[in-house]
């Protein structure tokens, strides 16, 4: 049994101080990323800082230009919110397909992003839409947030408070899920912008990434024919007991076509 302390702060300032004073402390939100890590003994925190009481991490705000989600927003809330479905239909579609009901009703968007698991869905949406991460210290552009396997630009003790998405209906997302866990095996998010295209790939590599070649192809001709001769190199892609790197390379092309079809259907 791991021996650790537990505290539920009442303010962002109190939470930040606890994290600063305890370098081995971990933030507890929905627990769907943290608890499995604790069970596998991959982390041994000295303190769990439960952020459920922090109002600054809650709330859904939608205006004419953006959708702002508190970091504590659960996946099921995104999936069921009719206003999000209207403003960002691809985001609601994505949330409905995350893992299993327990994960959707307990897991939070902030926890998913801070953990940055290769098999998580939200990193593709954040990077594919060019969202902004708001913390207790600064604003971080999506292109600067995801830095590597289970790694982000968040500094030690920095709290993720909100995510700001540009309001956009011309997006599509397709993931090929792991049949047991529901995690992303390979996924592609595509957003058509007025001045170009953003394409994010998740699951296929250690960290979500923008796909420059697909962006160039679709910016030139936003049409399925642009993908006819596309071939994803297998080098650098994940390989495990379930899926080889070569098969994941094929899945990138499959997911891209399906995501593009979703965009074109709007």
UniProtKB/TrEMBL annotation:
Gene Ontology molecular function terms on file: FAD binding; oxidoreductase activity
Keywords from UniProt, A to Z, are: FAD, Flavoprotein, Oxidoreductase
- Pfam family of the protein (one): FAD_binding_5
Work out whether the entry's keyword set contains Electron transport. no
Keyword Oxidoreductase annotated:
yes
Q: What residue stretches are annotated with the FAD-binding PCMH-type domain?
A: 1-170
Q: What is this protein called?
A: Xanthine dehydrogenase family protein subunit M
What is the species listed in this Swiss-Prot or TrEMBL entry?
A: Rhodoferax sediminis
């Amino acid at each position: 049994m791991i021996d650790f302390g537990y505290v539920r702060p009442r303010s962002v300032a109190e939470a930040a101080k606890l994290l600063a004073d305890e370098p081995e402390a971990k933030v507890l939100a929905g627990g769907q990323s943290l608890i499995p890590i604790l069970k596998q003994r991959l982390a041994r925190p000295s303190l769990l800082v439960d952020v459920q009481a922090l109002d600054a991490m809650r709330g859904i705000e939608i205006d004419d230009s953006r959708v702002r989600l508190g970091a504590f927003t659960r996946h099921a809330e995104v999936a069921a919110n009719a206003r999000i479905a209207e403003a960002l239909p691809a985001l609601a579609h994505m949330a409905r397909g995350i893992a299993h009901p327990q994960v959707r009703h307990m897991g939070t968007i902030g926890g998913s992003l801070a953990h940055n698991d290769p098999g998580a869905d939200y990193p593709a949406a954040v990077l594919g839409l060019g969202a902004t991460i708001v913390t207790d210290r600064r604003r971080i552009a999506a292109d600067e947030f995801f830095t590597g396997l289970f790694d982000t630009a968040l500094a030690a003790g920095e709290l993720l408070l909100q995510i700001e998405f540009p309001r956009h209906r011309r997006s599509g997302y397709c993931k090929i899920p792991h049949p047991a866990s529901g995690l992303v095996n390979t996924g592609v998010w595509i957003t058509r912008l007025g001045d170009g295209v953003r394409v994010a790939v998740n699951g296929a590599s250690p960290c979500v990434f923008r796909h420059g070649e697909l962006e160039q192809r679709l910016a030139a001709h936003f049409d399925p024919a642009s993908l006819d001769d596309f071939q994803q190199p297998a080098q650098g892609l994940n390989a495990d007991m379930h899926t080889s790197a070569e098969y994941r390379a094929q899945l990138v092309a499959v997911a891209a076509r399906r995501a593009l079809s979703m965009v074109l259907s709007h």
